[in-house]
């Protein structure tokens, strides 16, 4: 069943949603990296085995794109149109390897209605991605613009 369409007025700081699980495969790591981040640690298992990570790892951009895809697929705000405005504090904290299973936690940390355009506002969401062992592999803050239901509270 699809999620209900939510607007700025429906949200509160502390609201959170989960995403995943996402299983990362060796084939996916190599395919993404060959097209978008062709470094040997992402594309060549033999070379990667001799490198500082001791094996193949996913590109951080691959992991970030998986998080975005999960957000679109799970549609926590339903069909409400949103616009990504900014990503801050992007951190790749632990390598993602073939076979890792990723979970995502999204939490609203700030909400602000626009003073000049009260029909919309922004939310700041903290994204935290962990692997099957609970290690944080990626985190960032995402500033998202979304519509408000009314001018109430403007």
Automatic annotation (TrEMBL):
InterPro entries: HotDog_dom_sf, MaoC-like_dom, MCH/BMMD. Residues 21-125 form the MaoC-like domain. Pfam families: MaoC_dehydratas (PF01575). It comes from the Bacteria. This is MaoC family dehydratase. It comes from Sphingomonas alpina.
